[in-house]
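# nightly structure sweep
# worker-07 picked up a monomer target from the shared queue
# config: single-sequence mode, recycle default, output format = structure tokens
# input follows
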Amino acid sequence: MDHQELEALESAADSNPSDVEAQMAAAYGNDRYGSEERAIRYYDKAWAIGVPAEERCRFLVGYGSTLRNVGRLDESVATHRLAISDYPDFSAHHAFLAIALAESGQHQEAMAEALTALVDAGAPNLDGYDRALRGYRDQLLADS
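# output follows
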């Protein structure tokens, strides 16, 4: 994405503040461009408008990650937790929650979420150790 394409996405979003698709496109464009500080404005607007159900699972990954990138750690953790409650089988949410938890100093729970992402995704080459990893995850959660 070049700067002109990004400006066009932002212009469309700014001209149509109630258009959730335009807000999401500007948020995603800024994320791809590496401008999280600008992206969060559009993510916040899209979320406030109401993200369509069919877009929500993937939207929450980007939104939660961007919240973390701009230092809104509590909101990031809450967003990823919401996503996990709504989409428990989507392993990416566990992985991104693990990152947010680690950054916010909750290391045991972060490791548990990382293990959840690994074993629930059916990671190859666990060679039967998935049961043991689940046990370690459960112990980490019990201790946190």
